[in-house]
Amino acid sequence: MRTWLFKTEPRHFSLDDLRDAPDQITGWDGVRNYQARNRLRDEIQEGDRVLIYHSRGKRPAIVGEALVVSRAYPDPTQFNPDHEGFDARSSANQPRWYQIDVRYVRSYTRPLTLNEVRQYPEFADLELVIRPRLSVQNITDRQYQQILALCEPDLSVSGSLDLALP
DNA sequence: GCCAACGTTGGC
DNA sequence: GCCAACGTTGGC
Fold first, then answer.
1. Which pTM does this prediction carry?
2. A77-80, long-range: CB within 8 Å, 24+ apart, which pairs?
3. Which residues of chain A (8-47) touch nucleic strand C at CB < 7 A?
C-alpha cells in the first residue's frame, strides 16, 4: 500500500464534504494536469492511503485521511459540455482524464499546517514543499509516520520518531 | 521541438 | 485580490 496526498480547495470540496457524502465516498474528479493524471491512472491502486490537503483556505493544511476504493476510470465530467471540466479533445474511445473513488477515513485532531510543515527539516523533501502545484503527490512511509505522529499522536505507533522543531 | 504568450494555481 | 511560479498551447 502506498500513501498519496491530494489537494483540494475546501470552498469547492472539503474533507467534511467527503465525510458527509453518501456512503462517505466520492469520485475524485476534476484533475486536469498530465502528471497528476498519470499517477491516478497508472500508479494509484485500490487500497492506497490518501492524505487530504486543503489549499487556498485561511489555514492551508493536511487535514485528514481517505482511502482509494476503486481503480482509475475516465472522469465523466470531461464529456459533459455543461460542466467546467469539459474537454472537447476527449472522446469515449480516447478519454484524456481519469479519476478514482475515495472513501472518508478520518479527520485529524491536529491538522498539520503548511506553515508547520515548513518548520520541520524532516519535511524539506515533501512534494508539498518542493512541487507545491502538483495535485497528486507522493508520500513516503516514513513521511506518513511522521505526519501521523504529529496529527494523531494517540494513533501513532512510532512515538520514537525523533521529530524536533529547529 | 523551441519558446513566447497565455492561463492557472495558491500562498499571502 | 495580487502576483510569482509554473504548466500548457501553438506558431514557426
1. 0.93
2. A77/A29, A77/A30
3. 33-35
Element (H, E) at A111: strand A101-113
From the Cβ of A133, is strand B under 7 Å away? yes
Question: Which positions in strand C are less than 7 Å from the protein's CB atoms?
Answer: 1, 6-8
Torsion of CA A141, A147, A151, A156, to 10 degrees: 40
For chain A, domains (ranges, CATH) are 3-151 (3.10.590.10)
From CA A121, how far away is CA A107, in angstroms rounded? 25
In whole angstroms, C11 C1' to A62 CA is 42
Condensed to tens digits (0 to 9), the pLDDT of residues A14-31 reads 999 999 999 999 999 999
